[in-house]
Amino acid sequence: METFNFEQYQNIVIKVGSALIAPDGMSCSTQYCLPLANFIKKCESLEKRITLVSSGAVAAGFNTLRPQNDTLSLDEKQALAAVGQSKVINHWQRFFDNHVAQVLLTAADMQNHSRSANAHRTLNTLHQHRVLPIVNENDTVAIEELKFGDNDRLAAQVACLINADLLIICSDVDGVFTDNPHLNPQAKLINTIDTIDESVLSLGQNSHNPQATGGMLTKLLAAQLAQNHGIDTVICNGKTEAYLPLLQDQCAGTWVVSDKPLDRENAARIRNTYP
Length: 275
Fold this sequence. Notes:
Layout (H helix, E strand, L loop, with lengths): L10 E6 L1 H4 L8 H16 L3 E6 L2 H4 L1 H4 L8 H20 L6 E6 L1 H5 L1 H16 L3 E6 L13 H11 L4 E6 L20 E2 L4 H4 L14 H13 L3 E6 L16 E3 L6 H10 L3
């Protein structure tokens, strides 16, 4: 088995879920975001290229519009997202001395060659100017057939788009377990996954967090998409800062190893064909 080596990763996508952005489901919090921002700055000091995929817009807008019930209509969710997007960006900006930039995407953007090429060039230009791209789904306009479904999949698609070599999914669980650890205290953490097949996907459970749009299954599906494009994935607990051991070449979560390393070169050639 290959030993985890963080130094080899130079182009990293980090996905942060709503449970870390807005633990109370109604506002942005520094509790988990500030330590993660410090981790990002350490990665950047090591000359690693970081792209952040951040959830939390709907939760961030909640206290402003204060909907009357917990069952939100599509119009209400889109209105909350419209208010919350700027709050999330401002929330992240205060943790960084350099500029951050908001990049909003829909599934249709990724499916259209011209628009995905534009997104690729924009992200590349932001990195060239040492601006941290913060990506989220454009919830204010996305309807069901245009939605990614969850930001785990969005993060995986962004990783494929920019030819990343590592996807880090920061959640409120320690990684992939042999069973649901919230229901079964005997469940064991799976440290390394070589291939994501049906038996591994069957380990996915619905999220225990009502603010999240996906559970472990969506993370495994995202890791599978990344794996098929030669991208490794780490699923770890952002609440316990389990990403910090990565700096010491230790994975405190679940490491999904790509089984197609040559795809990285192929993906690079594909991306270089963009006009």
